[in-house]
Amino acid sequence: MLFHVLGPVEVRTPEGVVLDQRARKPATALATLLAHANAWVPTPRLIRAIWPETATPTSVEANLKTYVWRLRRTLPAPACGVRIDSRPGAYRLRVDPGELDSEVAACRAAEARQAARRGDHAAAAALCRQALGLWRGEPYGGLAVAEPLLPELDELRWALRSAYAEACAALGRVREADAALRELTDDDPLREEPWARWVRLLTDAGRASAALSVYARARAVLAEELGVEPGPALRAAHAAALRSTARDPARVA
């Protein structure tokens, strides 16, 4: 991959990192173009991103042209031959498939869903791990230009973590699924789905006592933070845990 935005913005070639976020303004120009990859970005939007302060330099457009010129010299050409197009009042960064890590992560997530649907849970788990390994920190290194993209990227990462837990559970890798669901509920305790899946996982693994304990924690969090009782999925998981203990009281020990 050439462009890395799932962490501080970087450009990597076979020779190594050729641009990173220490070059603040060129990196911001690149990040703005990457946030709208293969689309035209108006010059005023680039200027606002690079110089968010009210007082911009009098030579702002000349400076922007200099940054674009540097990027053109730094970035290798894409398959089409032109990396950064320009027209009056706008620029466009061309990104080929497989060059941008956030797009690769989204593709891996789609492939993992397909693998899970056909019952290949080992492939699904591996694809999720590959995608999750692309994250190196806060996307776009915290640059303000990427703020509108963060909810979507956060949700993508959450979906990958959730799918990984589900694949591990389907493979009988209880310890890995247990750890993944614990992390999910720690990170966002108000989402009921991972709580319900965690209760089911522990019940199916013969750990009804732990399942009931997890349910109690979930119920307490929901009551304290939202003032609500568990929803249908979590209640159903709880009922299954109770039925398990009724069939085999030793499981409560």
Summarize the structure.
This protein is mainly alpha-helical and 253 residues long.
What are the main properties of this structure?
253 residues, DNA binding, Arc Repressor Mutant, subunit A, elongated, 6 strands, 3-stranded antiparallel β-sheet, Serine Threonine Protein Phosphatase 5, Tetratricopeptide repeat, 10 helices, DNA-binding, mainly alpha, OmpR/PhoB-type_DNA-bd, single chain
Helices and strands, in N-to-C order? EEEHEHHEEHHHHHHH
Report the uncertain regions.
none
The number of strands is 6
Q: In the CATH classification, which architecture of the domain at 3-93 applies?
A: Orthogonal Bundle
What fraction of residues sit in β-strands? 5-15%
Structural class: mainly alpha
Can you list the strand order of the major beta sheet? 1-2-3
Mean pLDDT: 93
What is the fourth-level CATH superfamily of the domain at 3-93? Winged helix-like DNA-binding domain superfamily/Winged helix DNA-binding domain
Determine the N-to-C terminus distance: 51 Å
Structure description:
Residues 100-242 form the Bacterial transcriptional activator domain. Belongs to the AfsR/DnrI/RedD regulatory family. GO terms for molecular function: DNA binding. With 253 residues, the chain is mainly alpha-helical. Among the domains are: 3-93, Winged helix-like DNA-binding domain superfamily/Winged helix DNA-binding domain (Arc Repressor Mutant, subunit A), CATH 1.10.10.10; 173-253, Serine Threonine Protein Phosphatase 5, Tetratricopeptide repeat, CATH 1.25.40.10. The protein has ten helices and six strands, in the order E-E-E-H-E-H-H-E-E-H-H-H-H-H-H-H. It has helices at residues 24-35, 43-50, 60-74, 101-117, 121-132, 150-170, 174-187, 192-204, 208-226, 232-247; strands at residues 3-4, 10-13, 16-20, 40-42, 84-87, 90-93. Strands 1-2-3 form a three-stranded antiparallel sheet. It has a three-stranded antiparallel sheet with strand order 4-6-5. Strand 2 (10-13) and strand 3 form a beta hairpin. The radius of gyration is 24 Å and the shape is elongated. The relative contact order is 0.09.
